[in-house]
Amino acid sequence: MRLFHSVNCGFWTIDFDKLSSNGGIPCCPTCGSPGFETTTEEWDKGLDQMSAKYVDWIDGMQEKCNPKFKEESVKWARIIEER
Ligand SMILES: [Zn+2]
What we know:
Elements: E1 2-6, E2 12-13, E3 20-22, E4 25-27, E5 35-39, H1 40-48, H2 52-59, H3 69-82
Antiparallel strand pairs: 1-2, 1-5, 3-4
Zinc ion (ZN) binds at residues 6, 9, 11, 28, 30-31, 33, 65.
């Protein structure tokens, strides 16, 4: 199954009808951040290596635009490095 993930705000969805489009590039419908298309298989594979709390955080952003996504990602990156 296809999955869209926004670069800037963490918005992700498997429902491509919810996205806006900027010249054919799929974007977050709230803030317009462009994103990547992947598959649910690849997405799950990536999350399998993460802690349960991180996975909860990502899961919580399904179809939600989080303006603090980048800031919060940096915090997570530090936590992951410290493990
Ligand atoms: Zn957004």
